[in-house]
Structures are given as structure tokens and as C-alpha cells.
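ok trying again, last paste got cut off:
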Amino acid sequence: MPLDTLYSEQTIKIKDTVKDFVSAVPKKLLLDMDAERINYPRDYLEEAGRRGILGLRFDKEWGGKNMGWTTELAALEEVGVLGTSLACLYSLVSIVGEAIHCFGTHEQKKKYLRPMIMGKLAPAEALTEPRGGSDFFGATTVATRKGDLFYLNGQKRFVVGSEGADLFLVYARVEGIDDPHKAMTAFLVERSDTVEVKHVYGLMGTRGGGTGRLVFRDTPVPISNVLGEESGIGRGSDVFHQMMVPERMTSAGGAVGMGRAAIEVAARYADRRKAFGQKIRRFEAVSFKIAESLTLLDAARSLNYTVGRACETGGSTGKIRRLVSEAKKFSTETAWTVVNHAMQVMGGIGYTNVFPIERMLRDVRLITIWTGTNEIMNQVIQHEYYKEFSGTPLKGRDTEMDAEGSDLEGEKIYE
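nice, full thing came through this time. structure:
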């Protein structure tokens, strides 16, 4: 791939290890998940843990590799070829693990993060509620404290792993605190009989991950399971904003893999299929879609790499938020475009289950919606951009003045 010359030897080694893992995933698992004969592939996570490819960014003390985002993105591209369900389950260790790694106590990391990275504890994130999607602070799930216990009551929907996961990262408002920003708290909730799987969704694609609605009825959570213990009460917004980095970067990395897988199938088909006496890749209508797809994927991959490096080296919070949102938006929209190009190249046969393109199309549609819709990404991008440049003195050339009439009196009227 084009970025291989920029990767370290260790990154390439991990990328190859992940590729071997992906190659070993049974075709039957993909088909059974899509047909909803399997609702949660625990064996898949356990095998990834045995191969040491989960939680790559986290400290070696907890079983990670202490690698950066550029390595994880390289791994995510390989996992992405399996589709959104398996890529998401792989990513949840990175997503939920981020919260524990950044905000958790030593005891929480030992109890939860380490077994997650080993593939022995399956995590899920309970964020979205029936009354709100992108409105994080509109959450109505409430945590009531009684002594050293909190009791959670409320609902969360679209929880990947509602069936199958052992541990849920749940955001809830602590009762008695009026300001929702100060009340929001992140809890580590173990599965129990007080956590009810109310409904498992029938999905257009991205099936087999046990995506459902959870209902918490007086679910007891010890104060030691507040993320950060007592110091974490009211810090849910901090956890949320930090979590948006892995939420969106894992989507971006996996999206490139999904698009790559689709266009590789289509390109091979175009090199074999003949019409009018020649291979169809000789026709510009076909070959130009391949060319556009490759260009988009290379651009998305390069943007992801650049954003990954920015996350590793640090920078202003606003700048990172903007770049991460750009990566998620551009990569997911690229994947959607490329999979559609692949189907168009293949024609009618691409719409059947003779090839996997129709499943990929159903899968990839979701990624422009989840972890914040791409419309929300646009909102974040422009907001952070205006905030950055409006408060910064102009440096360098003022190109606004490079017009013949730039100094004309009375022409630049803004109100």
C-alpha cells in the first residue's frame, strides 16, 4: 500500500499479523452473522486477544503494545475488510479501553482493561438514548446514589453488544445535580439481571453484533465503578469528548478497509469480464470508476495517517477535534462512494449474493451515521475552524488585499 514506506517496521509487522488474523476468519462466520444465525461472535474477540492485536495503543502493563494511532489505523484498515460488525467489535476494545486507560484507576485498569485486551472481557458502549441521538447532554438515564452504591434507571439504544458483552460503559446523570454538564457521569456496568435486553434490532446491514436496546432497572453500580471513582462524578463530558477521538478514528480506519475490499473485488471482475470483445476495464466508464475509487481511498488513507500523527504528537484540543471529524467524514463518505462504484462496475451481478458487494453496500451505509452523523462532523469542523482563526492574528500574506479594488472606500459593507 502507498503508506507502507512511512510505517515503522513494528507497524508493518503488526499490520501483517492482523492481516493473517483477518484471513483466518471463517467465511461461515460472516454469512451466519449477516443471516442473524449468530448474534455475538465471542470466539472472534477471543482469537484477536490470543494473537495480541487488541488495544494496540495502550500501555504494555495492561497487555497493549504502546503503539500510536498510525499503527492502529493500519490494523483497522485490515480489519475493515471484514465489514462493519466485526470491525466495530474489534474497535470497541479501543473505544471503551480509551475511557478506562485515560480516566480509570489502577484497580479499574487491572480489573477491566487488561482482560479486555486479552479478549476475555467483551466491552460495549451505552451512549445513545431513544429520545436523543447526537444530543449527548439530553440523556435521561439517571444514577441515584445510596451510600456506596449508585442505582441506574433508564434506557440506551443502538448498543452494539447488548447481547454478548460483559461490560457496558454507561453515561448517566447523577440525581441531585441540576446542570446536565456537571451531572453527567461515566459508569462501568457489569451485566446482571437488572440489565435487560429489551429489543435486538433488525438491521439493514452490520448484523450479528447483538445491537439492541438496554433497559436499566435499579441496576446497582458500586462507587468504585464510577470511571475514576469519586473523582469521576460529573466528569462524563470529559470522558465523552476524549472518547470521540477513538469513536471517529476507528470508523475512519475501518472505512478505508471496507472501500478497499469492495474495489478490489470489482477490479478483478473488470479484468475478467468481457463485453463487445474486450475486457470491460478497457472501457472508460468502468476504468474511470476504478481510478476515482483508488484516488479517494489513497486520499482518505493519507488524511487518516496525518490525523493519526497529529493525535500522537499532540496539539490544541480544538484542532484535534476538527481533524478527527474530517477524517471520519471523508473516510466514511469515501467508503460509501467506492462501494457504490464497485457495484456499478459489476452491474446486475453485483446486486446479487454471488458477490459480497451487496452485503458491503448494506454494511457501509451505517458508518456515515454512527459515532456522530457526518452532518454533525460538518458542524464540528466549521465550528472549530472559525474558533481557531477568528481568535488568531493573521500571519503571512493577507490575500484579501490581492484585488485591484481592495482599498475602494465604502465597498466592503458587512452590516
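cool. The chain has a mean pLDDT of 94. DSSP finds twelve helices and nine strands in the chain.
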